[in-house]
Amino acid sequence: QVQLAESGGGLVQAGGSLRLSCAASGIGFSINVMGWYRQAPGKQRELVASKATGGSTNVAESVKGRFTISRDNAKNTVYLQMNNLKPEDTAVYYCNAEGWGRETYWGQGTQVTVSS
Fold this sequence. Notes:
The chain is mainly beta. It contains no helices and eleven strands. Strands 2, 4, 5, 6, 9, 10 and 11 form a seven-stranded mixed β-sheet that branches. The chain has a four-stranded antiparallel β-sheet with strand order 1-3-8-7, with no helix packed on it. The model has no long low-confidence stretch (mean pLDDT 94).
């Protein structure tokens, strides 16, 4: 079974920081792209940031300059450094991974709550 283990969510005041981690594991699992999505109450799930094995990245306009995505390819782990958090960042954050065979996997989600 492919698993994405997420950690790092929590409660933080506006202006604070959190670092999310996601480690992928599974028999025969080989990852191309890893990233983070989020879903706030009453809103659609949206891409926050993603990073391919080769290093290319996509980052949502709403978090540019505040969030940084990074990867440890050897460990199939992706990180999201979240700085200057705002209340509108409050959401469940989901780790996502896409294998070289175009398989897609999702984590259980980790809650990020930013208070004002």
